Prior knowledge:
By secondary structure, this protein is an all-alpha fold. Helix 11 packs parallel to helix 17 (335-363) and helix 14 (277-295) runs antiparallel to helix 18 (368-390). It has one domain (17-402): Growth Hormone, Chain: A (Up-down Bundle), CATH 1.20.1250.20. It contains 18 helices and two strands. The radius of gyration is 21 Å and the shape is globular. Strands 1-2 form a two-stranded antiparallel ribbon. 56% of the residues are buried.
Amino acid sequence: MNTTTTTATTRERALPLSVLAVAATTFSVVTTEMLPVGLLTSLSSGLGVSDGTAGLTVTLPGMVAALAALLLPVAVRSADRRTVLCTLTGLLAAANLLSALAPSFGVLLAARVLVGVCIGGVWAIAAGIGIRLVREEAAGRATTVIFSGIAVASVLGVPAGTFLGELAGWRWAFVAMGVFALAAAGLLAAVLPKLPSSEAVRLGAFPGLLRGAPLRAALLVVLLLVTGHFAAYTYVRPVLERVPDLGAGLISGLLLAYGVAGIAGNFVGGAFAARDPRRVLLAISASLAAVVLLMGPAGGSLLASVVLLVAWGLTYGGVSVSAQQWVMAAAPEAREAASALFAGVFNAAIALGALTGGLVADGRGVSDVLWLGGGLAGLALLVVAGAGAGTRKGRSPHSGARPHRRTEKRPENRTENRPEKQDVVSP
């Protein structure tokens, strides 16, 4: 292969900057959503509330995001998706700055309501946008990169916010995140191509989609896995504070290691999920149940706690991208509507996990949140296994990983400035 051919191949494989800009946006919303996890102790003491009450800063945005994910695509169904993403990311920056200036816990919760609107709206659009920015053969890789914003948020966002909070106070962590979100909005405006609405998403489309058994199974697995994860992970800092010889500085380092493992899990999970998302989620559910349940008994050992926390990050890192691949495979003819359902269920699960985790933490102690999280992951394992048994004689939910040719007509030489047209989703 000559140099010219090699260069052309490299360019063909490279993802456009627009994909990275959307990934930066998902990083912004996930970091903002999860920032209180690393700041939980200082935030609760600074505003005079309990750890369980402070967990509402994660619960409330998740509840709002679940509604926003369903309603916002309907409200902006004719708007250019580039304009919508830029507007939501700018609003996210403003919500972070309001959080930093909040004089009371009530004002902070009001700011977090705005965060919830941004989270739900961004994910409803960004989750399925990768296929509109690249050629079909690169769609899986683009989706994986966009979802990597979740894992990178764990690596850089939450640990950096935790470190900054310990260094200068929790308010400065929100200031820094506001500045980053503003920069992300500017990057989107600069590099994202025009993305006119490709689907007229209507509320009546959602009940019709939910009649499909594969999509229902995929969403139920998302609900169980994400609820279980956040019931436990929202309170991971208090859990780690009970491990002998584990100081505050080392906890920040462990959260960083968790995030690095999460990035690896995102790309490994994404690579395998492009071929068979259900089998990937089967392995993830089993591993997550085992790891979270073992975190409690291993609390007396520093080494065991470190190993399990890293394994937790590696396992959970593949959940989002694998579940999204399964959802898209189950409804290839209605990607944006299915993505809205996915984002709605995902964020509702975050809220439910943080809420139930807070009730358990305040009522029975933080160690018991691990039993709750591991048990829900075990239930997810049963659902995934049952979905496989139910589709063995028919068309499996992952067999549609490649969309039907009749639902999308792609120009042969489509670029990111020429998005494809998709079918209209009607009630």
